């Protein structure tokens, strides 16, 4: 229940964090993770969660003390430098190619129910159709989108429990740790943990809603840690079933329908899992992503990072130009048939790279807001030297995750990213030079 000021209560905050965390990440990334590390995928989940909670500590503290909408962008701009905010906005923008993952994965899972739809042309058509459908739904505003979201989330969680309950008994425990365990070595395991950031780290998104959360200074970090831990445990069980109910080689790089086919022999339960959990997770994330991605860039548009008209809204309050751009971000890779593993590594690597930028803002927080810092519980816990260590650890974790994801990708994908980043840096340098000479 909301308080008198209309802020989110603790229960609503927990629900929001859980909703952002439980979604398509587990559906799209588990099979890819198994291809990297085999049956040790179930250990990659807690490692990913721990690294996430450690490396994101700076932004958790900043959001608790300095609640801001579009938190990462605002901290980059307000606490570091205007150009840091712009750089974050541009990296975040390209990283939204994650939206393509949902359409492509949806087509793959649907073909598990209807094998006739497994052809290349059919897969592209389905991916484009589902992207178009939810693009149109979101053009009518958040109310309609929210109604769809609430119904699908309930079905999604029920399907996860069905998969785990029926599958946990069918795992081959006798040879689980000898057949396909740590198949990719230490490097493969760490790459899988980095990839799964997309699955376990969704709770950090509530930092963007900090101004609307009741008593955010006390509950923000606790909610993120609690939700991440609970969801991670559930994902560990899913990873155990997905990699143990069938040979790891059969599950590697494949949709969750492969282990589900072995686990859920009842056709009704199998259909419920595929439709309710797999397709449900994809459409709920796709549904929320259109609004989330678009609204998160309205302020950068107002600040001139992008053309201001991109942030223009329709009668339903929807930034339709931005939403159209992100629709194309999803449609083009789907039509081109880009490999899902490559696309996942590119988009998640860029997402992690973007989150590096605002983290250093915590070093400036005590200086720019001295009274706020001194009155907080963090002042005594984190003297200057400890803040520096925190930020150094954060960058070490995030940098190695980015490297591990990009290193295994084709050259062309990394060239695209490097050229884009180079163009952004050059553009910022030219802008700075012009402002000095005017």
TrEMBL record:
The chain crosses the membrane at residues 12-35, 41-66, 87-110, 122-141, 148-168, 188-207, 219-248, 268-293, 317-336, 348-366, 387-406, 412-430. Its main location: membrane. It is found in: Cell membrane. Gene3D superfamilies: Amino acid/polyamine transporter I. It is a multi-pass membrane protein. Signal peptide: none annotated. GO terms for molecular function: transmembrane transporter activity. Keywords: Cell membrane, Membrane, Transmembrane, Transmembrane helix. GO terms for cellular component: plasma membrane. InterPro entries: AA/rel_permease1, APC_superfamily. This is Amino acid/polyamine/organocation transporter (APC superfamily). It comes from Murimonas intestini. The keyword Cell division does not apply. Pfam families: AA_permease_2.
């Amino acid at each position: 229940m909301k308080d008198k000021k209309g802020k989110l209560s603790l229960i609503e905050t927990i629900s929001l964090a859980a909703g952002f965390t439980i979604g398509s990440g587990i559906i799209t990334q588990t099979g890819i993770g198994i291809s990297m590390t085999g049956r040790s995928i179930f250990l990659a989940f807690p490692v990913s969660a721990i690294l996430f909670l450690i490396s994101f500590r700076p932004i958790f503290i900043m959001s608790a003390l300095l609640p801001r909408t579009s938190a990462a962008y605002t901290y980059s701009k307000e606490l570091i430098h205007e150009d840091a905010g712009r750089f974050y906005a541009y990296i975040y923008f390209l990283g939204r190619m994650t939206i393509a993952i949902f359409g492509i994965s949806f087509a793959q899972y649907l073909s598990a129910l209807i094998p006739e739809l497994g052809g290349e042309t059919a897969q592209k058509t389905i991916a484009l159709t589902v992207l178009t459908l939810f693009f149109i739904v979101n053009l009518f505003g958040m109310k309609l989108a929210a109604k769809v979201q609430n119904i699908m989330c309930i079905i999604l969680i029920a399907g996860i429990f069905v998969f785990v309950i029926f599958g946990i008994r069918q795992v081959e425990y006798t040879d689980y740790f000898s057949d396909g365990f740590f198949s990719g070595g230490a490097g493969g395991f760490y790459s899988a943990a980095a990839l799964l950031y997309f699955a376990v780290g969704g709770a950090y998104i509530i930092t963007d809603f900090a101004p609307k959360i009741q008593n955010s200074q006390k509950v923000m970090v606790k909610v993120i840690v609690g939700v991440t831990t609970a969801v991670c445990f559930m994902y560990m069980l899913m990873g155990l079933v997905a990699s143990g109910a069938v040979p790891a080689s059969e599950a590697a790089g494949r949709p969750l329908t492969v282990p589900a086919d072995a686990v859920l022999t009842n056709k009704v339960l199998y259909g419920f899992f595929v439709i309710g959990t797999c397709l449900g997770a994809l459409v709920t994330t796709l549904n929320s992503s259109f609004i989330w991605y678009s609204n998160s860039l309205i302020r950068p548009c107002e600040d001139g990072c992008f053309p201001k008209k991109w942030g223009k809204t329709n009668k339903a309050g929807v930034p339709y130009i931005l939403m159209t751009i992100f629709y194309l971000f999803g449609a083009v890779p789907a039509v081109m048939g880009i490999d899902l593993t490559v696309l996942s590594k590119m988009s998640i690597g860029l997402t992690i790279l973007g989150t590096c930028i605002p983290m250093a803002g915590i070093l400036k927080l005590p200086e720019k807001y001295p009274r706020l810092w001194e009155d907080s519980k963090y002042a005594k816990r984190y003297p200057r030297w400890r803040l520096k260590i925190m930020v150094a650890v954060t960058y070490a974790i995030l940098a190695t995750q980015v490297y591990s994801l990009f290193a295994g990708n084709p050259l062309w994908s990394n060239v695209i990213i490097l050229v884009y980043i180079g163009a952004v840096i050059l553009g910022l340098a030219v802008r700075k030079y012009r402002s000095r000479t005017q």
